[in-house]
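Question (not urgent): is this output format expected?
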Amino acid sequence: MALLEVESLSRRFGGLTAVDNLSFSVEEGAIHGLIGPNGAGKTTTFNVIGGFYRPSGGRVIYDGRDISGMATHAIAALGLVRTFQATTLFHELTVAENVLVGCHLTARSGLLGVILGAGEERRRDAETRVGEILAFMGLDGLAGDPCANLPHGLQRALGLAVALAARPKLLMLDEPFTGMNPEETRRMMDLIRQVRDSGVTILLVEHDMRAVMGLCERITVLNFGGLLAEGGPEAIRADPDVVEAYLGAPVREAAPCFSK
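Got this back:
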């Protein structure tokens, strides 16, 4: 059953069409990849789905509801949460405090109340939630450490923990493996699988093809703002048009990058 349906979606900026009559769906419980060469429209598609841009045409249906053009905070409150290419963390706060900030989307007292302690019972509930998330992510031993002291891979994991604090039903990950070494990438892949297995559907944009092929059950490929191909990793890996369009090289040269 589709949790997210993108129907004939378009987004234009003046005379430039960044997303062109795009349709695809994300099944509930899936890890779904959205890939394509630079300028293919991936980030713009994410921005339209998440409410940062209004669509120029078409619709976004989430959990049976038309969310096209809704405000970002209203979309997040429905359980569709998005991360960004750059980690959006408060480096002056501790690991636990960063996750506590992420709880504000489900706390009636709001962000300021969560930070300052308004509503003691709600704060205790949020702190319990923080402890559960940090344990789930394997970060509980770092709860009191300053965020700024974490290595890059752990900062990315913390960013995922902050997103989980908002209780997503669908989590959109924008290049979660950026800047990671192979060991950090493997660790993040395991974390993403754990998040999916906990009941969260995943839609991710990523340039690391080995991570995409090893992680995603279904992949949507964009080119020039439109749909180029869609299918499982094996079908995408074997599609010469996908390989050449994505990497700008003949299949014989580019294919190894699509290995698991």
